[in-house]
Amino acid sequence: MHRFNKGVEGTQRKHTMPSAPSKLYADDVSLLVVTLDTNPFFWTTFPFPFAEFLSQVLAFLNSILLLGQLNQLIVIATGCNSCAYVYDSTSERNHGSTTGTMPALYSNLLHNLHEFLARDKQLEASHKPGTVPSSLLSGSLSMALCYIQRAFRSGPMPPQPRILCLQGTADGPEQYVAIMNAIFSAQRSTVPIDSCYIGSNNSAFLQQASYITGGIYYKPPQLDGLYQYLSTVFATDLHSRAFLRLPKSVGVDFRASCFCHKQTIDMGFVCSVCLSIFCEHHDKCSTCGSVFGQAQLDASEANRKRKA
Amino acid sequence: MGCDLREDAIAAPVDSALAGGIVDGVKGDVNVDGVGNGGGDGAGAVVAVDGDSVEVVVWGRQLSFVAVDETLSPEGVSCDGGSRVSSCTTCGLSVETSEGTKLSRVAERERERERNLQYLGFSSTWVFVLNLNSLLHISEIMNNVAERPLKGDVEDDDEDDGADLEAWERTYAEDRSWEALQEDESGLLRPIDTTAIYHAQYRRRLRTLAATAATARIQKGLIRYLYIVVDLSKAASERDFRPSRMAVIGKQVEVFIREFFDQNPLSHVGLVTIKDGIANCITELGGSPESHINAMMGKLECSGDASLQNALEIVLACLNQIPSYGHREALILYSALSTCDPGDLMETIQKCKKSKIRCSVIGLAAEMFVCKHLCQETGGTYSVALDESHFKELILEHAPPPPAIAEYATANLIKMGFPQRSAEGSVAICTCHEEAKAGGGYTCPRCKVRVCELPTECRICGLTLISSPHLARSYHHLFPIVMFDEVSPSSQNDSSRSFSNTCFGCQQSLLSQGNKPGLSVICPKCKQQFCLDCDIYIHESLHNCPGCESSRHSKSVTASQ
After folding, report:
1. Closest listed residue to residue B519, CA positions, set B484, B482, B486
2. Which of A76-85, B88-97, B266-275, B344-353 has the lowest mean pLDDT?
3. Measured in whole angstroms, how far is the alpha carbon of residue B385 from the centre of its chain?
4. From which residue to which does any coiled coil extend (chain A) (predicted)?
């Protein structure tokens, strides 16, 4: 039965994930890597309190582990100055039984998160007052992918990995190249990146990440029911998704922003050497230093010589 | 009959002065078996003995051979080849050299044997038959000899006797599976631990890459127009690559095309095959991997000769039309050991050089001068594959963009459009398939026409249409991450306090068996420690250092640099 399902799954998933060869996975075992945005500058300005957010997310994480005995869960905190693993369900320390009032998951995760936040605060770099510095999403995505590669190495039947980004802070443009690198690497190893974005505007980075890797991008309209959104949309494993009516993407913004004025453009000039994008014609590429327009000069000179 | 290829004879130097080719001019020493090489410094090998005649292969001015003949005295015979009929100085037996003793150039049908001898290291070999008792039909003997295996060879080579083995034995003999085993301290057999070797190889490769990148400002030819030329001549059906050269090429070209488009999303590929001395263009330059792979898989049949010139001419004609900013390249997968051309190949090579086409060749048989010359002239690389895995390695080396050479393509600004993906559910007629499709298309920003896939060229206004991820896919070539420093276990012991014992990327313990620190690497920028597997993954696929990305401090440092 399972084997048959896998065949169906393979064919159905082809439609959602272009150019993704199907892999051999252990049945129904999920490896969920969650990146948790803990940027204090964002949470202090955001109307929805972090404590409330965390309590709903913790309930969701617990339900993931309860869905299957073999399910694995990794939580990586995405801070403002650093990133760190805060929970790993496979490590032996986290297998302890409930300590008094709280399950081991909660107490360990909260303990590590406290430590992480304290460390993150110490590393704090100066930033312009009044602005919210971006969280280091590129770092936590890179760490998540490294962990998933380790899971792939673990044996012939690795669990099905996926990444869930719980992000609130707006995109940091300086991370563009790094995030795109992580997205392409995830696409190559057929790891879907789901994203639940709770900030005010849509995140173009996460939209692209989910679109390219075949994951789900969703922006919950009401944060009071966050747990409900998480458990219905993001708790389902890859196999079950084929049978669900999941939120459709509202369209992905693939427009580029030019290197010179950071404007979003739908037509522009691209340097043939380094592929930098410009909104107007330049004589020299500011990224790689190549001088443009030699082609026509050379050609005309050659023509002149030929005539002579 | 007891005659062997003599070790001392084999070791003798090759004297190319074997001119004349007639035994009269050759001083010969004849030695009877058991006595040995009788003093003459000739180099020769008896290849066959037949009752009363001896076949000798001679290299060098003097010949020596060993005969087994019951008519000869056990002390042996030595004769002076200078005279036509001579008697042995030792026993007085007359040794006549008949017509057949003329050193006859190895006949056509003897080529195979000649090759065997060349394999032993002799460049010029001659075979002649010496008649001891004037009773000789050369041709007959030669025929006999041709059918007989070369004894010395058989003993030297145990690979060539595959015909004697059963099929199941042969697979083991060819696989050499025992070579993948080694003995451990307690004498148990274990598979060889290849991870350390593999990692060392990978680091060496990385270092050479880093060295080339450091020499000049990084400019890569990111917009490439590549023709893959596949030799489907008769030589491609050889089975020295398993299951056959052709099958291996087919499989690896498919892998290569996918990898190529993954790394060079704005580039174009075309396919050319050589068959029956004619080159055919089976796909025009295009950006869709599937169409190339399907076209190639349908054409995998081989026959006839290969023609390098015809192939290059086709590539030349096709690549002359591309825009000047594109990098023109040809990758030739050549199985044959010859080229059968209608004209002067050297002229064509010069034409390629003039048209700035970078030609690279991967040979499947042996190195050929003309291929090497072609690659040297046009700035490409030439390599010869040893086996299947080596071939795969070699072909995948051509996937990352080569460093841009200023004279090869001029920098230019290309006007491009970044179409937006239309919302799911909207219906429009696409220009690529000319049929109505619901949702999922892109709209050209200039002429507002619908296309199905990116990257492409607008069919109406000719604008190059791409999406920003296509550009971003190439950016890692421009911003490569630094090589990590290796941390040896001993140095880690000295300052073990400062290291955590887990990999920063995957949290794997860096301790090998027995709680000793194993091999690891460290990022010179963020000083985080990584395991070897992560090191490879980070540099080959991710192109991000998780340590640098997850610390704002090191990031600002890199930005200021």
Report:
1. B486
2. B88-97
3. 2
4. none
- Paired tokens of A228: 């409900």
Chain A residues 151-210 within an 8 A CB cutoff of chain B:
153, 174-178, 180-185, 188-189, 208
The 10s digit of each residue's pLDDT in B106-151 is 344 455 555 554 444 443 334 444 434 333 333 344 444 444 444 4
Q: How many CB atoms lie within 10 A of CB A230?
A: 24
ipTM value > 0.85: no
Residue B134: closest CA among B88, B102, B103, B97: B97
Distance CA B317, CA B309 (A): 12
Looking at domain B485-560, its CATH superfamily turns out to be Zinc/RING finger domain, C3HC4 (zinc finger) (3.30.40.10)
Give the pLDDT band of residue B492 (cuts 50, 70, 90): low
Has residue B349 got a pLDDT over 70? yes
Q: What is the CATH T-level fold of the domain A2-241, as seen in this structure?
A: Rossmann fold (3.40.50)
Stated pTM of the model: 0.67
- Choose the CATH number for B219-396 among 3.40.50.970, 3.30.420.40, 3.40.50.410, 3.40.50.2000: 3.40.50.410
> Given 3-state DSSP classes, what are the helix, strand and coil percentages for chain B, each rounded to the nearest 5?
35, 20, 45
Q: Where in chain A is the domain with CATH 3.40.50.410?
A: 2-241
Q: Name which of A184, A207, A278, A280 to mutate to probe chain B: the one with the most chain B Cβ atoms within 10 A of its Cβ.
A: A184
Domain with CATH 3.30.40.10 in chain B: 485-560
What confidence tens digit (pLDDT) does each residue in B372-385 have? 999 999 989 999 99
Q: Give one DSSP letter per residue of A50-119, joined into a string.
A: HHHHHHHHHHHHHHHHHH-TT-EEEEEEE-SSBEEEEEETTSGGGG---BTTB-HHHHHHHHHHHHHHHH
Amino acid at B109: R
Q: What is the pLDDT of residues B402-435, one digit of tens each?
A: 876 666 667 778 888 888 777 666 788 888 777 7
